[in-house]
Amino acid sequence: MDTYQGCARLEWWANRSMSLGGFDVRVTARATGSDWTCEAILEGPLSADDQEVFDFLMQADPVFTLHFDEGSEILVNVAMAMAGDGGRLALTVYEPAESVSA
User: Cα(84)–Cα(80) distance, rounded to whole angstroms?
Assistant: First the structure.
């Protein structure tokens, strides 16, 4: 099992040129074979304005780009781990649904 612990940044992109929000996180990512799990904690506490933006983006679409310090990135689904859990997040690899052609 490979484990990575460090800082990263979650960003929510409206399109290829406009990010609507970015949030610094501390991550613990684990890879076992082809399985990948990641937990993150928002660096904070977030200001009231930043919390409002984060909550809005999560409701709009919880798919963020996770940028690691060394330059790699991955699309992830973001979920709150538990209410009142200090900003703890569960991240999973985003896999777009396959489109069905008629």
Answer: 9
Judged by DSSP in three states, 15 sits in strand
Measured CA to CA, the distance from residue 85 to residue 77 in angstroms comes to 18
pLDDT, tens digit only, all 102 positions of the chain: 688 899 999 999 998 899 999 999 999 988 887 788 899 999 988 899 999 999 999 999 999 999 988 888 999 999 987 655 567 899 998 988 765 555
DSSP E strands in 1-102: the ranges are 2-15, 18-32, 35-42, 63-68, 73-80, 88-93
Beta bridge partners, 23, equal 10
CB-CB contact of 54 with 80 (8 Å):
no
Distance between CA 38 and CA 3 in Å, rounded?
Answer: 9
Angular region, 63: left φ>0, alpha ψ -120 to 50, beta rest: beta
